[in-house]
Here is the input.
Amino acid sequence: MRLLLFSLLILFSACQPSERPSPTQSRLTEIPRLLDRPESTRHGQEWDQVQNRYTQYRDQILSEKEADKALLQLAQLFTVEARVTGEHGHYYPAALQTLDALLDSAPDDRDLTFLALTTKAGVLLSQHQFAAALETGKEALEMNPYNAQIYGVLVDAQVELGHYEKAVELADQMVAIRPDLRSYARVSYLREIHGLVDPAIEAMQLAVSAGLPGTEEAAWTRLQLGQLYERYGQPQKAEAHFLHVLTERPAYPFALGALGKLELERGDYAKAEKWLTQAAEAIPELSFYEDLVRLYQATGRNAEAEKTLNAVLLMLQDDVASGHQMNLEFARVCAELMHDDRRALEYLLREYDQRPDNIDVNRELAGLYTRMGQTGEAQFHLRKAARTNSRHPELVSLQSEMGVDRLSAN
Here is the structure.
């Protein structure tokens, strides 16, 4: 479930009013504000640079001096801030609002329109609106078939929709245009999907090597490498990479959360709580709170579990209200934290209606139907989940439980 930066010259807080553009400016009726970053996510001069760039773009829009370019840059800033701060409910709608204002103005600059469409497709992906992202991405591709970034967006959309052969084709084109961190990472994802675990790790190692240490993008990529090791039974290597991230980007919330999850799986609840609490205090990331619920439930702290679970449900509702499709996330919370398989099934079937070919959705359905004792439905979805020869541990476990070997599941 589940890639730019900015801010104000004066620190804006969430309660401050938005700036209003001149009456002759585009259909952007308000310039979305920049939220203050928590201290742990400022990373030295990075936050100052973000604030300065936000102010520059805001002033350009207000003065109508290169306003179209500033609208694009502001939207790109918002997409980075969304991931750095976890404030998805504010920044993704802000980015879409800004991009739509630019696109509605029908800029003469064809390259600017292409970049706006590409960025918009990326935001739609982040909101899990995969079909819309694919259509927007295709529109951008028609304008420029030689840009690696748009192939990355299209790879992601095709993967999420379960169109894996097309995703491989697009990834090959992306690597041919620009072999870099982004393209190597997508090669890694696709290799894992097709059961090629060691080659997937090799590709992610290439992606890590291509990153600039200390940047959010490089930290995120090394995190993915660590999670690959964790997923396929090498927790010591995973831990080493998560700790390495913190040496290059101190207090990086996703590395803190990953260490907490690792300790939770080991049963070291004290260490898990330390890491997860630090992560959750830094940014409102759903997965950190979910793992805290698991920890509280495992240690019999029922009142804290219930309170944190309520926070999780509120976060999910906020995401939905801001345009996210969160059926899969709701389903996991219902099944794993609330132990309500019937309600989980409702959400999973909604997601299946939108993405019937996605192997992750089918794997979740296979597992849920197995727990509910509905063997026929479980086998149907298990076969769909196994069609790429994925070696995901949950899939392998289900195949073993149901007596289905790797080949007969195809």
Q: What stands out?
A: Residues 359-410 form one domain. The chain has a mean pLDDT of 92.
